[in-house]
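Because discrete structure vocabularies remain unfamiliar, we turn briefly to a single example record, giving the amino acid sequence and backbone structure tokens:
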Amino acid sequence: MKKLLKSSKAPKAIGPYSPAIEVEGFKKIIFLSGQIPLDPETGEMVGVDIKEQAKRVLLNIQALLEEINLSLENVVKNTVFLTNLQDFSDFNEVYKEFFKEIYPARTTIEVKGLPRGSLIEIESIAVEF
């Protein structure tokens, strides 16, 4: 069970993420390596803009979790790497299509470059409840 943690003495989230979450009674923790927007069939990069690439990355994360009978609901933390923080709003639009409240805790970092010229990479931590 995930529970949103917030405090009147700490700032509210400025996007689709939770400042902190508490997880009780989980069976195991799954650490997903950073995913970039690669087509699972061809291994080639997908998308030319952040929305297309973010969607592919999140679909790849979803597929990995489904392989072990989990879903995005099991994700408790995401670390997002963007090559341009100007893409933050567009990324959030896509992100909200995949994650619902209670959103995972999240860190978003701007980086100089990512593998294969990707605009985005996401690593995740999921738990089995």
About this structure: The chain has one domain: 2-124. The radius of gyration is 15 Å. Helices lie at 50-67, 88-98.
